[in-house]
Amino acid sequence: MRVLVCAGGTGGGIYPALAAVKALQAHGIVDENVLWLGTKGEMEETLVTRAGLRLETISGGPIVGVPWSMRARNALKLARGIGAASDHVRRFRPNVMLMTGGYVAVPVAVAARRHQIPIVIYLPDVEPGSSIRFAVPLARRIACTTDGSRAYVPAEKVVVTGYPVRPDIRAARQLTKEQALARFDLVPGRPTLFVFGGSRGARTINRALMAVLPQLLADIQVIHVSGTLTWPEVEANAATLPAGLRAYYRPYPYLHDDMGPAFRAADLVLARAGASMLGECPAFGLPSILVPLTFAWRYQKVNADYLTAHGAAVQLTDETLADSLQPTVRKLLFDSKKLALMSTAAATLDKPDAATELARVILAEATPDDKAASPLAQEETSC
């Protein structure tokens, strides 16, 4: 069986698709029978090839939250992408397609539909973004992270699988807290804050944290994944810390293999509200302080609202972060009863079999080999 994957742009869509492919491999799907379509210059170029999977790229770009001139250019790229996607589908002849989003989701969904390839959407966020909203009518099944997504997509297509946390991250649950802290040369018994801004980083969070680091490091320790965009600024700031404080601060531009240990080492997370927060914090029973992006990223606010409503998170805003970050961190880290209640609430949202469940949905929708990319569909595409 051959599986086409369309997932790109951010880690929130790429990582669960990688986890689903891993689960499919447990059902006998080999690497050469997986083709990943993404966008040139985006995160998938690094992450997918790093996973040993075949990646083909199609030109594309954002059409939401950008100037009209850029929107027009990118819309033209996406229109041309339908032909490129059709070529890949015709040659690869997939039995099913998994889609999580990204700039090329629209042209790839159109191409797959033209070739009569069954489409399974996995919706990482509670609310779908614009490209997935377009593809929803074309999909046979929509696997969702939470039941909250029923408000946004047709109920008859919904299967709630949970967020497929990467196996390498989930494996860190087997570490003791002391072992996880040792990975970062940090000490047991001192409250640990894990800060990250998603796969691209978050300038507002980074700068608010740097402004209060000396005060925080007086009695807590911090693992800080800044993202590459602000890393030079974060690295320069770290060099100015007194040695006694620097001993409790671990900044990184990005973590690949040690994200799991960072979650396991932490007592509290400070982050944006991307899709991964719906899976990774629950997997470790971690309370969180969420700072959702709102402009052109409304779905982050919906994610944050979901976790907050379930008692697993509190929310701050970019506008108030500079003043509220330090008191909020201290209020939670030094209130063991509140932290324990939030931890329990987060853990109840975990779905450890999410990747396996998503793989089952994909396999159930796949067509037999003799119907994959049928000649009739190819003829229709060429007309």
What does this structure look like?
This protein has helices at 11-25, 44-50, 68-92, 105-114, 130-135, 167-170, 177-183, 203-216, 231-239, 243-246, 259-265, 280-283, 298-309, 321-333, 336-347, 354-365, 375-382; strands at 3-7, 34-39, 54-58, 96-101, 119-123, 141-144, 158-160, 192-196, 221-225, 249-252, 268-271, 288-290, 313-315. The protein is α/β, with parallel strands linked by helices. The strands form two sheets. Strands 3-2-1-4-5-6-7 form a seven-stranded parallel β-sheet, with helices on both faces. A six-stranded parallel β-sheet has the order 10-9-8-11-12-13, with helices on both faces. The chain folds into two domains: 3-163 and 352-382, Glycogen Phosphorylase B (Rossmann fold, 3-Layer(aba) Sandwich), CATH 3.40.50.2000; 168-347, 3-Layer(aba) Sandwich (Rossmann fold). It is built from 17 helices and 13 strands. α1 packs across α16 (354-365), α3 (68-92) runs parallel beside α4 and α7 crosses α11 (259-265).
